[in-house]
Amino acid sequence: MKNLENPAGIVDETRVVVIGLGYVGLPLAVRLAKHFPTVGVDRDARRVAALRAGYDHTGEVEPDVLAASGLTVTDDPAAGNGADIYIVTVPTPVDADNRPDLSLLLAASTAVAGMLDSARRPIVVYESTVYPGVTEDECGAVLAQVSGLVRGRDFFLGYSPERINPGDRVHTVDRIVKVVAGETPEVTARLCALYDKVTDAGTYPAASIRVAEAAKVIENAQRDINIAFVNEIAQIMARLDLSVWDVLAAARTKWNFLPFQPGLVGGHCIGVDPYYLSHCAEALGHSPAVVLAGRTTNDAMAHWVADRLCDTVAAPARALVLGLTFKENVADLRNSKVVDVIARLRDHGHRVEVHDPRADCAEARAEYGIDLLDSLPESTYDIVFLAVPHDEYHALSPERLAALVRDGGVFGDLKNIVPPSPAFAHARRWTL
Predict the structure, then answer these.
(1) Which of the following is catalytic: 139, 192, 269, 310?
(2) pTM over 0.70, yes/no
(3) Residue 139 among the catalytic residues
(4) Nearest residue to 420 via CA among 239, 248, 245
(5) Is the dihedral of CA 283, 284, 289, 293 positive or negative?
(6) Which residues contact 427 (CB under 8 A, 6 or more apart)?
(7) pLDDT digits over 21-34, tens only?
(8) Contact at 8 Å (CB) between 402 and 384?
């Protein structure tokens, strides 16, 4: 490996290849391209074409930043041949039975194996969320088998878990601490030197690759458990006819009360990563009761919300759901639990229409069979459910939202963003 004797000696000529140009890979690749010759490889030719035209559908990189970047984007794996550093940022979802699905990760590893040049002794870094052992036992094995090279001699492994929060303009890749681990202290030092160029917040050298993998997977499991707690509290408060928002506001006056909020837990991280942790635990003979209890509570929240919306509305009714993405102000539809609310409303016999100013219509249709409305309707509905508080909905007046609800209908405001208003005198308002 180049500069192994001086591992901190990352130089401007270090060639970097980023595999996967989604929510994680693209911001990282753009940042790296400020310092190193960087190639971004994505197998989606349409994604590559859009990026070349200066458009990032995720909204994570602004057009002017993308246009000014020195990043080379391509769908041709051969463009990544002979680099010094490979960074893999592909998704790691779960299957229909909530078991880890490593197929994209292993396919990316196969592709990278064909790019490796043993003369450069490259480092292959994984940022995808996994359970401890995957980088070395699964990915490393694929790299060695496909390439015919020897790990630890011809190429080396590293791990630096992604911490991208879609839509977050504060905790961006250049402002967060990067946990970094290599299979040797020298590799760790070299990777720290690389990532120190990316983030102003610095790097944290983990004790091992497995430690770094474990740290990542428990970060999101912890959030999942805390949200499950407040979701259960919301259900208890509903039986007491108390607003959970009032209860939480009072509780937050204590200095060490954690400010978690109830809601639908979807997306690619919090709603998925605990299953990676539980899979690992069960393989070791441990029953992860707390981790799975959190998942059970949060996965059931969508049905509970839909049932509350239907409590006073007889079927068949017309329902309008505002927002489909997994969280506010992003276009990301992955693992959106709003889809489960819609399915439950339909199970109750209601006719459901959906509007989302951020979501891609073709993707919504392809992934979920949902046809999005082109614009906010002028008609009235028996149920109007504000599921995702996009800024576009924040900008609407209470009068405009109330005009969507027929007399005697229900207006559901999941996140309690719409202030009380006489405009809703004709309807029942519901929130957690």
Answers:
(1) 269
(2) yes
(3) no
(4) 245
(5) negative
(6) 402, 405, 406, 407, 408, 409, 410, 411
(7) 999 999 999 999 99
(8) no
